[in-house]
Automatic annotation (TrEMBL):
The chain crosses the membrane at residues 12-35, 56-80, 92-114, 135-153, 179-206, 218-241, 247-266. Keywords: Membrane, Transmembrane, Transmembrane helix, Transport. Belongs to the ABC-3 integral membrane protein family. InterPro entries: ABC_BtuC-like, ABC_TroCD. SUPFAM superfamilies: ABC transporter involved in vitamin B12 uptake, BtuC (SSF81345). The keyword Membrane applies. GO terms for cellular component: ATP-binding cassette (ABC) transporter complex. This is Metal ABC transporter permease. It is found in: Cell membrane; Membrane. It comes from the Bacteria.
């Protein structure tokens, strides 16, 4: 099943893919914490469908696919952010957007006369084909996303845990929500380029969900989530070099295995009263000025 002959030569050919995977792992691991805390896994799936439709449209028109993916993601993020303020409204908006985006994407791919590999790459990822322009785009988006998260990390954490108390203490809860959705949309757009629209949840949801199974610490949840995402992406790429399958199944299998292990560990520790003690330590409130 695995053949590691000439592994060093293959590794040198995929250095762009490894760098892209590492950047995506860092972004996905960090923003996934807020996706879980704000109950947005369904929104991630909805945004990825519109991102897929945007990328498919730009592929059909002969334009930059990455730009199309970003346009689709931002459009979906803004629609969800504006129309889906309440959880019930958000779910219904996403439920409407998902089939619409998927249908548009399938239509654009059906009309595309080019190679079939480009079509499936948008759905299942094409990390082995990351070229210098794509890496440049990913690096630029990573700087924007990580910079935005660094600036609004603490107030966003507070607003995600308890929005009413955060608003009462002067945190701009309403302003943070659309800004976060834009940052999420950018991250989803880049993830679609790597693992495809169908598997984006494996990077933006599973690592954070696994980390929350073993700790409730405001420090260790993002640290473990990022480590898990990096192991999933980079580990999947390194394994795929010696295997005969596409990269995506390796990434999703590693990510799912980590979640299973964390779930087992978390269940064992919860029986000893660990969860309550750790949760009591959590205080995301900003320091008084």
């Amino acid at each position: 099943m695995f053949n590691f002959d000439n592994y060093g030569e293959l590794l040198a050919l995929l250095h762009n893919s490894i760098i892209a995977g590492a950047l995506l792992g860092i972004m996905g691991g960090l923003i996934g914490v807020f996706v879980m805390m704000r109950d947005l896994p369904f929104a991630v799936h909805g945004i990825s469908e519109l991102s897929f439709a945007g990328a498919a449209l730009f592929l059909l028109l002969g334009l930059n696919v990455v730009v199309g993916s970003v346009v689709g993601s931002l459009a979906a993020a803004l629609i969800i952010g504006v129309l889906g303020v309440r959880a019930r409204d958000r779910s219904s908006v996403i439920g409407v957007l998902m089939p619409f985006g998927l249908g548009l994407g399938v239509l654009f791919l059906a009309l595309y006369p080019g190679r079939s590999a480009n079509k499936f790459g948008l759905l299942l990822g094409q990390i082995v084909a990351v070229d210098d322009p794509q890496l440049f785009w990913l690096g630029g988006v990573a700087v924007v996303v990580l910079g935005a998260l660094a600036i609004m990390w603490r107030p966003l954490m507070f607003a995600s845990v308890d929005p009413e108390i955060a608003a009462a203490r002067g945190v701009p809860v309403r302003a943070l929500s659309p800004v976060f959705m834009i940052v999420l949309g950018l991250t989803v757009a880049m993830s679609v380029q790597i693992v495809g629209a169908l598997l984006v949840l494996s990077l933006l949801v599973t690592p954070a969900a696994a980390a929350m199974r073993v700790t409730a610490s405001a420090l260790w949840v993002p640290v473990l989530s990022t480590v898990f995402a990096l192991i999933s992406v980079v580990g999947g790429i390194l394994l795929a070099l010696g295997g005969s399958l596409p990269i995506s199944p390796y990434i999703t299998t590693i990510s799912f295995t980590i979640w299973l292990i964390c779930r087992f560990v978390g269940a064992q520790r919860a029986r000893r009263g660990w969860s309550r003690r750790e949760a009591d330590r959590f205080d995301p409130a900003p320091e008084p000025v």
